[in-house]
Amino acid sequence: MSASVPATGVMITASDRRAVAECLEGGWLTMGPRTQRFEAALSEWTGTPHAVAVSSATAALHLACRALDLGPGDEVVVPALTFVATANAPRYTGARPVLCDVESPERPNLSAAGVERCLSPHTRAVIAVHFYGYPADLGPLRELCDARGIVLVEDAAQAIGAEVEPGRYAGTVGALGCLSFFSENQLCTGEGGAVLTADADHAARVRSLRSHAMTSGTWDRHTGNEASYDVVDVGYNFRLDEPRAALGLARLSRLHDDIERRRAAVGRYRGALAGTPGLALMWTDNDVARSSHFAFPVLFESGEARRRVRDALTDRGIQTIRYPALHAFTEFAPLAAPGSLPAAEAAADRHFALPLSSHEDDDSVERVVGAVRDALRQG
Amino acid sequence: MAGTETSPSGVPLYDLRLEPEDVRAVMEVLESGWLTLGPRTHEFEAAFASHLGVRHAVAVSSCTAALHLAYLAAGVGPGDEVIVPSLTFAATAAAVIYCGGTPVFADILGPHDFGLDPDDVERRIGPRTKAVCAVHFAGYPAAVDRLRALCDAHGLALIEDAAHAPSADFEGRKLGAWGRAGAFSFFSNKILSCGEGGLLATDDDDVAALARSLRSHGMISGTRSGQTGETDSYDVVGLGFNYRLDEPRSALLLSRLARLGPEIERRRELTRAYRGKLAGMPHVLIPYGDAGVGRSSCYVMPILVDDDGRRDSVRRRLRDEHGIQTSVLYPAVHEFTTYRSRFGEQRLPHSERVARTEITIPLFAHLDEATQDRVVCALDEVLAG
C-alpha cells in the first residue's frame, strides 16, 4: 500500500524556524516588537488600516461582536454551513445567531436573498463566511446591510488572500474581518488569528479587550512607559505571543506563492475531474481565480454516494475534510428544524474536501483523482 | 542580557533565559509540521499531572481560560456568586463575569500574608455562592485547608488560582491539587513559561472531560482523530471556545518542566538572601515568614513600604536613579473603573493597604548576589532619602 495523503500539510521552512529560534533566544515572549511587526505586515499585506493579532479566529469573531456592542436581544445572521465558531461568537455576548440557508449546494455561501429572509427588527449584524476560501458575494450583501443599518462582518478564517471584490482581500470589506492562523490554514502559526478593520475605534476596542481591557501592557511597563494600569472593561486574554508572531511574519512573505500553488493544484484537480459522472465541481472557474483555497471540496449526487467514496478514500489512506450543517449538531439543533435549510443540508450531506496544501504535487493529485474515479465506478 | 532591550545596564523585574535544549524542542515540532493538538500536548499534560499528583491536566491557552473553564465546571452561571480576592490579577474576577456570575470580593489576611482570609470568606457566603477562588500569592499557600473545609461545609467548589505556584505545596500536597480545579499560568513572566499558556488541573473526571471538550468548541473529538477519517463522528455539545495550547508551546513547556525543581530551589535561595539583606531595613515590611519560603515557589519578591504616599516615588526613583525595574502586584481589582461601576464601591482594608504600598522587586533564577545587593542598597538609599 502506498503512503497516505494527508488532508492538509504544513511545510515550515528553515527560515521560518530561524525566526522562531531568534525570538526564543531573545527571551521576550509576549506582546513585543514581533507582534507589532506582524500586525503592521498584515495590515500592509491585506491593505487595511488596522490588524490586531489575537489567539484564534474564534477570539477574533468574539472581539468583533464585542466591538459592535452586541448583547442579549440582538440577532446575528450566520450561514448554516460553517465552522461552529461563526455561530458561537454572537452567543458569547448573549446575542442570538440566526442560521441562514446558503445560496446552493454548488455555491454554499450566504446570498443577499437568503439573508433578507432571516432579517428581523432585532438583526444587528450579518457574518459572511468565505467558505473553504471562496468569496461570498459581498456586493449585494453590503447593499442589503447598508440599506437596513446592519453591520457586515467577514469570517475570513479560511480565506486570507481571497479577492472578495476587485482589488479587495477577504476581511477588508466588512466593518471587521476575522482571520485564522490555525495549523491547517494558508497562513499558519499553530493557534492564532487576527481582526482586520478600517475603523480606528473598532481597532482600539479590539486591542483593549484582547488584553483584559488594561490601560497599559507588560511591554509598556517593561520599557518604563507606564507605572501601573486601570481595567476599564471586562476583557480577555486573547493575545498572540511573540514566537507565533515571528512564525506568522516569516511565512507571510511567501503567502502569495503558497496561495498560487494551492490554486494551481485546484486547477489540476478541476481539469482532471470535470465531467466525471456522479461528481460535480463546486463554484466556478472565476471563483477559483478569486479563492485562496483553504481546501478543495467537491459534490456528489447523494449523501450515500459521498459516504461511499469517502470511505473508499479513507481505506486508501487519503484523508478528507467535511463540515456538517450547524443544526446537525446537538448544540445547534434547537436553532433550525431538519429540512428547513435545504441548500446547506444538501451541501453538507453531499460534499467533502480532497487533500490540498501549498505543496500538493502532481502525483498526489493524480492518485487522489484516480481513487475518486475508482470509487465512483464501483458504485 | 535577554529581555532588557531598553535598559542594558539596568536590573529587569524578571528575565527569561531559555536553554538550547528548549529551543531545540520547539524546532523539532516545527520540523514535524504538526502544530496543534498532538503528541507533545498529551505528553506535557501527562508530565504536569504526574508532577502535581493529580489525575488530569488539561493544557489551555492561558490561565484566564483555565479559570473560566474551572468556574464553568463548578457550575457557575448567571446569577451565581464566586468569592474571590481583590489582590490578584483581574482575570480571577473577570472569568466569573464570563460565566454570567458576580465576583464577590473578600479581604486578605493582612500585610504579612496576602492569602484570602477564611473568616471574611465565610461572612460573604450567601444563597447564590457557588465557589471560592483562592490565589496562592507569589507561590505562598493560601489557607487551603481551612478554605477547603469551609467550602465542603457549605457545598461550594474550591477553585485554586495557582498562576504563581506551579510547584509549591502545603502539608505535602501540591497547590492546585487542593480544590475542585487548579488554574496555572505559563505566561512569559511566570516561573514555568511558554509565552501565552495555561492549564487546568483536577482529580475530578467530569471536570476534566468538560474542560477538554469546552477548550475545543464543545467538540467530542479533536483535530487529530478528525483527520483519520472519523470526521462524521463528532458532535458539538455545549458552548465551547478555542482555548487550545499548540504543540510548539507544549514542547517548550515539556522541556522546561524538567528543570522546574532546581529553578524553584534557586528562587528560594534568592528569596532567603533578600529576606536576610532586607531584615531590619527601616520603612520596609517583608510579608510572609522565613519558614514559608521552603514550600513556596517564590514567583516574585513582594515588599511593602510603610507609607502609602511614598510608594510611587520610591518606584520612580528606583527606576530613574538606579535602573531598577519594579512592579505592583496588584492594584486591587475592586478599585478598577469597570469593577467599581459594575459592583459599586466597597472597602477591603488589608487589600487596599497592600495595593497602595506593595513593590515587587526583581527576582529571576539567574539573578546574582551582586545584583541583589545593588537592588537592596538602592532601596535603602531611596527609602532613607
Task: Describe, in plain words, how this protein is organized in 3D.
Chain A has 379 residues and is of the alpha/beta class. Chain A is 41% helix and 14% strand. The two termini of chain A are 22 Å apart. In chain A, 58% of the residues are buried. Chain B has 385 residues and is of the alpha/beta class. Chain B has 14 helices and 14 strands. Chain B has helices at residues 20-32, 39-52, 63-73, 91-98, 118-124, 144-154, 205-214, 223-226, 247-257, 260-278, 311-322, 337-343, 349-357, 369-384, and strands at 56-60, 81-85, 102-106, 108-110, 113-116, 129-135, 157-161, 169-170, 173-174, 181-185, 198-202, 284-285, 301-305, 358-361. Chain B has a seven-stranded mixed beta sheet, with helices on both faces. The two termini of chain B are 30 Å apart. Chains A and B meet through helix 1, helix 3, helix 4, helix 8 and helix 9 of A and helix 1, helix 3, helix 4, helix 9 and helix 11 of B.
List the helices and strands and how they pair.
The complex is a heterodimer of chains A (379) and B (385).
Chain A lengths: L13 H13 L6 H14 L3 E5 L2 H11 L7 E5 L4 H9 L3 E5 L11 H7 L4 E7 L8 H11 L2 E5 L7 E3 L2 E2 L6 E5 L12 E5 L2 H11 L7 H5 L19 H11 L2 H19 L5 E3 L3 H6 L5 E5 L2 H13 L26 H9 E4 L7 H16 L2
Parallel strand pairs in A: 2-3, 2-4, 4-5, 5-8
Antiparallel strand pairs in A: 1-9, 6-7, 8-9, 10-11, 11-12
Chain B lengths: L19 H13 L6 H14 L3 E5 L2 H11 L7 E5 L5 H8 L3 E5 L1 E3 L2 E4 L1 H7 L4 E7 L8 H11 L2 E5 L7 E2 L2 E2 L6 E5 L12 E5 L2 H10 L8 H4 L20 H11 L2 H19 L5 E2 L15 E5 L5 H12 L14 H7 L5 H9 E4 L7 H16 L1
Parallel strand pairs in B: 2-3, 2-6, 6-7, 7-10
Antiparallel strand pairs in B: 1-11, 4-5, 8-9, 10-11, 12-13, 13-14
What is the assembly state of the chains in this entry?
Answer: heterodimer
Largest interface: A-B, 73 and 75 residues
Principal-axis shape of chain B equals globular
Which percent range describes the beta-strand content of chain A?
A: 5-15%
Strand order of the largest sheet of chain A: 1-9-8-5-4-2-3
DSSP summary, beta strand count of chain B: 14
Describe the main β-sheet of chain B briefly: 7 strands, mixed
Low-confidence stretches of chain A: none
Task: Give the CA-CA distance, first to last residue of chain A.
Answer: 22 Å
Summarize the amount of helix of chain B as a percent range: 25-40%
Shape of chain A: globular
Secondary structure: number of strands of chain A: 12
Name the structural class of chain A: alpha/beta
